[in-house]
């Protein structure tokens, strides 16, 4: 037992280092989530340059977060770390879909497959908001494109059939995707019918005026 104090001291040092790393990762994760939210708001304003600038800053913070957690696999895979990477993915995908750009792959964003898939699903919620804005502006064609994207995402996510521990509870995310996609389809169908009725009324009024 004469070495107990020495062993305990080394254990405490390691725990102190882990705790410090955890606190730093938590701080970084909060900043990543804040940046992702700001980037999404910029995308909805169609301020693509601002969104890109914010996402670049978020990427640097995420890189620092991963570096801090590199020696602690349990922190690297912790819920708060993966949540931040999911939000970052959502922001990137939202900007890409709204701006007619290719989707960034997990490897490009340096995120795991589960955060990427859940970020993809969460982006569908932002696509619904975008589709409703388009409908209000009367841009039915673009709203239909967004709906098609939402339907494609749902179809792809529905093929991912693995335990929740592997996918980060993707099934729950896809349930949300299905719901918002169905509601958006209903909203768009109503808008199309209203536009058809307006067009028919205009044509009727023109025909009356020509008599």
Structure described in brief:
This protein is mainly alpha-helical. The chain is built from nine helices and no strands.
Number of domains: 2
- What is the assembly state of the chains in this entry? single chain
Unreliable segments of 5+ consecutive residues: none
In percent terms, what proportion of residues is strand?
under 5%
Question: Please, could you describe this protein's structure?
Answer:
The protein has 211 residues and is mainly α. The protein has 2 domains: 1-101, Methane Monooxygenase Hydroxylase, Chain G, domain 1 (Up-down Bundle), CATH 1.20.58.2140; 112-211, Methane Monooxygenase Hydroxylase, Chain G, domain 1 (Up-down Bundle), CATH 1.20.58.2140. The protein is 84% helix and 0% strand. It is built from 9 helices and no strands. It has helices at residues 4-44, 48-69, 73-76, 79-98, 106-109, 113-137, 140-157, 164-167, 170-209. Helix 4 (79-98) runs parallel beside helix 6 (113-137) and helix 7 runs antiparallel to helix 9 (170-209). The chain is elongated and about 105 Å long. The N and C termini lie far apart (109 Å). 33% of the residues are buried. The model has no long low-confidence stretch (mean pLDDT 93).
Descriptors:
2 domains, Methane Monooxygenase Hydroxylase, Chain G, domain 1, 211 residues, mainly alpha, 9 helices
Present the secondary structure layout.
Layout: H1 4-44, H2 48-69, H3 73-76, H4 79-98, H5 106-109, H6 113-137, H7 140-157, H8 164-167, H9 170-209
Helix pairs in contact: 1-2, 1-4, 2-4, 4-6, 6-7, 6-9, 7-9
